[in-house]
Amino acid sequence: MADSDALILVDEADRRLGHLSKEACHQGRGVLHRAFSLLIFNERGELLVQQRAPTKRLWPLYWSNSCCSHPRSTESMEAATRRRLNEELGIGCSLEFLFKFQYHAQFDETGAEHELCSVFIGRCDGPVKVNRQEIHDWRWMPPDALQREMASSVDSSRYTPWFMLEWARIWRDHRPAVLALAASRA
Fold this sequence. Notes:
The chain has 186 residues and is of the alpha+beta class. The protein has a single domain (3-183), classed as Nucleoside Triphosphate Pyrophosphohydrolase (Alpha-Beta Complex). The chain contains 6 helices and 9 strands; from the N terminus they run ββαββββαβββαααα. It has helices at 22-25, 77-89, 143-151, 153-156, 161-173, 175-183, and strands at 7-10, 16-20, 33-41, 47-52, 63-64, 67-69, 95-108, 111-123, 135-141. It has a 4-stranded mixed sheet, sandwiched between helices. The chain has a 3-stranded antiparallel sheet with strand order 5-4-9. A hairpin with a 5-residue loop joins strand 1 (7-10) and strand 2. The longest helix is centred in the middle third of the chain and has 13 residues, at 77-89.
């Protein structure tokens, strides 16, 4: 394993502790590592949500935020977010940092997410070209429709746990920033 492919291990204060392979970070109960989650809106203020590919080890075919991943051990957060936007969605855009949160979500007995996740929002008015190895399906959703779905006990089980956590905080604490993206139309 090359160091550039390893993920960054951190403590609760986001201090770097070393690095470990992506596979090892997600085995068992998981090892705390640095991650990011991107929420991309269009000019109508709709959020791009994606359905994870069926080949994903954790939460296959669940709906999730626009893009999420991990900075590699040799990457800055900015470089990693740019890289993944291009790799997964074929886009580039400016991002605004909102908050960081730590969570643990167990998928099954052999795998989990245990991440310190930085959440960013951005706006993209250009066409999206999804990577079918990463994304099974995608759609643009009005934030209020997404909120209604997530509030429904039936529909909420279709979403990844990290997206549920971050969306609840965005809706509660950062709604003006989200609405400002729609208001900043060209």
